[in-house]
């Protein structure tokens, strides 16, 4: 019925290679998320978890899809820069 | 050669260790920075949510139902937030106000982050400098590390140990002193003494001349001493004057004390003014000193014990007293909180200036078990004061502390009611020094009263429902207030009451 999505964790500052690794992992996550969201039925409800709490807020499916796509783009750009 | 090699390896080891320590600090800083960045990020997201929260009247949400389950629900009252202020205190405020609070906290976080960054940078620099240090002191460059190895420590002391002279003993005059003195004189006062100016022309001194000169110096010094004593009014202590005069004499000129500085090191303070020249007079002088101090009427501080009445504390939870000490009255005078019954307490203002409220706590202390314990403010939590002040609450002190956060003011309500039943006189309703019940068992009492803590009667309420919110707490305090007066006559009812409350 519902798809829950966790916001990505904060970017940790570490040495070069682990950071890159982490970033690629995040990109992978984000890709999956975008795929999942785009494959949902129209009437499905999407909830977004408030960070640091257990409450899930109901959100719009299309809006979430667009934001997560944007996020993926940003991550990819970051990865290219490194 | 071998020594040199070991030294080098030692050095490398030490420098490596230093670098490691620096790196450790840097790493610790980075961990801290990471943590604080996370906190900042959390606050960011919270602020974002708070900004958008009052935009709608209600939100469809998933309500957490235990750690594993969720339930669809609705979030209403979108403009009402309870903010944790710390120590389980919450404040109800609007989303806007909450945002301001978040902003304020973010400022603090940012400040901490800046500090951490600074520290990390600082230690990185130090680590890099350590590398340079190793290059510098490695012996390859132009610099040489000068080290002196102590082979034999006994060579320094030369056999027998030197013992300090006992006070009031005359040090033996060594011939060396005179010789040095002579040399001094021969040099024409080159050492900078103020007295030697007249003798500077002479090349030689016969023995008679020398002795005459010494006598003159002696008398001069005595005069100087007397002048010093009259001038020196700050040092009333005999030892102090002697030591200070010693210092002054040392300053006076090398001619007098030059040869005897070695003696100075070993002499006690009593005989420290004795040196090669003035040794014959030192005892009379000291006596003179002590005699002269009185007529000089130097400012003297006399200490005498003030009469302090024994305080009687009854451990009823509330801060109750039967007798008031004079100090207590004085405190009340100072505070001007209550009118004092007796006028015999000469105020402390004569001796101490009370300018700030903090001074009051510095001046007035409680005596508990012979120890001085600073008074607590009456504005502070009674329960805390209790656990500190009462004599017999050591065992229950921990309990008090535990319950403090939960109970807060409740305790004082509770105790107020109990103090009535246990025949005690509270501060508020009794004139100081006069017990309300003259025929009661406390009349001839001068010590501490050990009384069973009345609190356990309220214990069953505490065992459950530790309140996290003050709203709950208020409710509970009201309940306790209404319930407790009935409790003492029928003690069984408290369990019943507890059960009732549980439902």
Automatic annotation (TrEMBL), chain A:
Pfam families registered for this protein in UniProt: ASNSD1-SEP (PF21975)
Region (Disordered): 1-23
Compositionally biased spans, kind Polar residues: 1-16
Protein name: ASNSD1 upstream open reading frame protein
Gene from which the chain derives: LOC105913287
UniProtKB/TrEMBL annotation, chain B:
SUPFAM superfamilies tied to this protein: Prefoldin
Record field: compositional bias (Basic residues): 160-170, 491-503
Record's compositionally biased regions (Acidic residues): 284-295
Disordered: annotated segments: 160-203, 219-301, 322-353, 381-441, 479-503
Transmembrane annotation, as ranges: none
Quaternary structure and interacting proteins, as annotated: Homodimer. Component of the PAQosome complex which is responsible for the biogenesis of several protein complexes and which consists of R2TP complex members RUVBL1, RUVBL2, RPAP3 and PIH1D1, URI complex members PFDN2, PFDN6, PDRG1, UXT and URI1 as well as ASDURF, POLR2E and DNAAF10/WDR92. Interacts with POLR2E/RPB5, RUVBL2 and RUVBL1. Interacts with PFDN2, PFDN4 and STAP1; the interactions are phosphorylation-dependent and occur in a growth-dependent manner in the mitochondrion. Interacts with UXT.
Skewed-composition ranges (Polar residues): 386-396
Alphabetized UniProt keyword annotations: Cell projection, Cytoplasm, Mitochondrion, Nucleus, Phosphoprotein, Protein phosphatase inhibitor, Repressor, Transcription, Transcription regulation
Basic and acidic residues bias (residue ranges): 219-232, 261-271, 324-333, 400-421
Family in the record: Belongs to the RNA polymerase II subunit 5-mediating protein family.
BP GO terms, sorted: negative regulation of transcription by RNA polymerase II
Keyword Transcription regulation: yes
Record has Transcription as a keyword: yes
Pfam families: Prefoldin
Record protein name field: Protein phosphatase 1 regulatory subunit 19
UniProt biased composition (Low complexity): 233-244
Organism domain of life: Eukaryota
GO molecular function annotations of the record: chromatin binding; protein phosphatase inhibitor activity; transcription corepressor activity
Cellular component per GO, a single term: mitochondrion
InterPro entries: Prefoldin (IPR009053), Prefoldin_subunit_alpha (IPR004127), RNA_pol_II_subunit5-mediator (IPR052255)
Stated role: Plays a central role in maintaining S6K1 signaling and BAD phosphorylation under normal growth conditions thereby protecting cells from potential deleterious effects of sustained S6K1 signaling. The URI1-PPP1CC complex acts as a central component of a negative feedback mechanism that counteracts excessive S6K1 survival signaling to BAD in response to growth factors. Mediates inhibition of PPP1CC phosphatase activity in mitochondria. Coordinates the regulation of nutrient-sensitive gene expression availability in a mTOR-dependent manner.
Subcellular location: Cell projection, Dendrite; Cytoplasm; Mitochondrion; Nucleus
């Amino acid at each position: 019925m519902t798809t829950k999505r966790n916001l990505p964790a904060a970017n940790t500052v570490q040495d070069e290679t682990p950071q890159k690794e982490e970033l690629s992992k995040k990109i992978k996550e984000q890709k999956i998320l975008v795929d999942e969201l785009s494959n949902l039925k129209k009437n499905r409800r999407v909830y977004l978890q408030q960070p640091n709490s257990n409450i899930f807020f109901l959100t719009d499916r299309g809006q979430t899809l667009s934001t997560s796509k944007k996020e993926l783009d940003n991550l990819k750009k970051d990865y290219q820069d490194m | 050669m071998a020594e040199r090699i070991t030294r080098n390896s030692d050095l490398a080891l030490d420098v490596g260790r230093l670098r490691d320590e620096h790196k450790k600090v840097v790493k610790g800083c980075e961990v801290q920075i990471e943590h604080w960045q996370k906190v900042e990020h959390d606050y960011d997201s919270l602020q974002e949510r708070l900004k958008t929260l009052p935009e709608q009247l209600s939100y469809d949400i998933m309500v957490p139902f235990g750690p594993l389950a969720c339930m669809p629900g609705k979030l209403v009252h979108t403009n009402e937030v309870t903010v944790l202020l710390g120590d389980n205190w919450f404040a109800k405020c609007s989303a806007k106000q909450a945002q301001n609070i978040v902003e304020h906290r973010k400022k603090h976080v940012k400040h901490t982050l800046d500090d951490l960054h600074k520290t990390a940078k600082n230690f990185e620099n130090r680590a890099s400098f350590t590398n340079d240090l190793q290059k510098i002191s490695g012996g390859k460059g132009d610099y040489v590390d000068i080290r002196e190895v102590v082979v034999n420590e006994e060579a320094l002391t030369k056999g027998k140990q030197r013992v300090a002279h006992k006070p009031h003993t005359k040090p033996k005059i060594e011939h060396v002193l005179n010789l040095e003195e002579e040399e001094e004189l021969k040099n024409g006062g080159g050492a900078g003494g103020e007295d030697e100016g007249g003798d500077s022309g002479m090349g030689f001194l016969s023995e008679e001349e020398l002795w005459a000169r010494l006598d003159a110096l002696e008398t001069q010094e005595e005069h100087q001493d007397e002048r010093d004593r009259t001038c020196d009014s700050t040092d009333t202590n005999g030892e102090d004057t002697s030591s200070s005069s010693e210092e002054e004499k040392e300053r006076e000129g090398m001619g007098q004390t030059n040869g005897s500085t070695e003696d100075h090191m070993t002499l006690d303070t009593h005989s420290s003014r004795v040196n090669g020249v003035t040794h014959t007079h030192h005892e009379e002088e000291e006596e003179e000193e002590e005699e002269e101090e009185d007529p000089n009427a130097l400012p003297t501080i006399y200490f005498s014990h003030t009469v302090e009445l024994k305080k009687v504390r009854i451990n009823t939870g509330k801060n109750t007293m039967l007798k008031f000490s004079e100090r207590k009255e004085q405190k009340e005078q100072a505070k001007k909180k209550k009118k004092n019954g007796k006028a015999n307490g000469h105020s402390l203002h004569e001796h101490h200036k009370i300018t700030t409220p903090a001074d009051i706590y510095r001046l007035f202390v409680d005596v508990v078990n012979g120890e001085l314990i600073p008074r607590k403010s009456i504005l502070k939590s009674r329960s805390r004061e209790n656990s500190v002040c009462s004599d017999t609450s050591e065992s229950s002190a921990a309990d008090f502390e535990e319950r403090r956060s939960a109970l807060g003011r409740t305790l004082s309500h509770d105790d107020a009611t109990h103090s009535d039943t246990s025949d005690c006189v509270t501060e508020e309703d009794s004139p100081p020094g006069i017990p309300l019940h003259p025929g009661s068992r406390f009349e001839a009492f001068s010590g501490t009263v050990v009384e069973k803590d009345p609190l356990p009667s309220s214990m069953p309420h505490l065992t459950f429902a530790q309140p996290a919110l003050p709203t709950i707490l208020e409710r509970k305090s009201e309940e306790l207030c209404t319930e407790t007066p009935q409790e003492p006559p029928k003690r069984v009812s408290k369990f019943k009451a507890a059960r009732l409350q549980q439902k």
